[in-house]
Amino acid sequence: MTRGWPARLREGHVELRPLRMRDASTWREVRTRNAPWLRPWEPTTPASEQGAPWSYGAMVRRLRAEARDGCTMPFALTHEGTFVGQVTVGGIARGSLQSAYIGYWIDQRYAGRGIMPTAVAMATDHCFVAGGLHRVEINIRPENAASLRVVEKLGFRNEGVRERYLHINGGWRDHVTFALCAEEVPEGLLARWQAIRQH
């Protein structure tokens, strides 16, 4: 089982909790309605490995198995109790690296309200404290202005471009890597984000 998992994290109206099978109909509705908004940034599978698309149930089962293996923390993101997206801590590496990446998406209706920066800050703090990790990274396509604003608001460090890093929307796409190490936010990332919002 992943250190620090399962977990429920809350700040005000924003909560991160494990994905549930009973989220299926809401998840499908949100994903279908947001398809044009999400498609340019969605991971895809190269043609050489194409298979049937994941069903929601298969996705949750896969993520739960990865959580049991200690390599992911798959969170549902809710606002005032309403499912609005996902935040996934993945690629958890132990040993001398002690690192993970965070991926996320949000319902367009809820974008721009500070929900995602709050959620990413909570997930990052959880990685550092309960998860015992040292480094968290976020990889974003250079064209994804909304996601870039999240890391900018939170003060993630730009580590440069990874060329043709991930298969996204049907092709290999460059990504910019942003990262934070635990000692860069000794007071916690959420506390820093809250202080920024108050000014």
Q: Would you tell me which CATH topology applies?
A: Aminopeptidase
- Mean pLDDT over the residues: 94
The number of helical segments is: 6
Going by CATH, the homologous superfamily would be Gcn5-related N-acetyltransferase (GNAT)
Helix content: 25-40%
First-to-last CA distance: 40 Å
H/E element string? EEHHHEEEHEHEEH
The proportion of residues in beta strands is 25-35%
Number of domains: 1
Largest sheet: 8 strands, mixed
CATH class: Alpha Beta
What's the β-strand tally?
8
Q: Over all CA atoms, what is the radius of gyration? A: 16 Å
Structural class comes to alpha+beta
What oligomerization state is this entry in? Answer: single chain
Strand order of the largest sheet: 1-2-3-4-5-6-8-7
Show unreliable segments. Answer: none
CATH architecture classification name: 3-Layer(aba) Sandwich
Concise summary:
The protein has 199 residues and is α+β, with helices and mostly antiparallel strands. The protein has six helices and eight strands. It has a single domain, classed as Aminopeptidase (3-Layer(aba) Sandwich), CATH 3.40.630.
What does this protein look like?
This protein is of the alpha+beta class and 199 residues long. It has a single domain (9-198), classed as Aminopeptidase. The protein contains 6 helices and 8 strands. The chain has helices spanning 24-33, 35-38, 56-68, 115-128, 145-154, 189-198, and strands at residues 9-11, 14-18, 73-79, 82-93, 99-106, 135-140, 157-168, 171-181. Strands 1-2-3-4-5-6-8-7 form an 8-stranded mixed β-sheet, with helices on both faces. Strand 7 (157-168) and strand 8 form a beta hairpin. The longest helix has 14 residues, at 115-128.
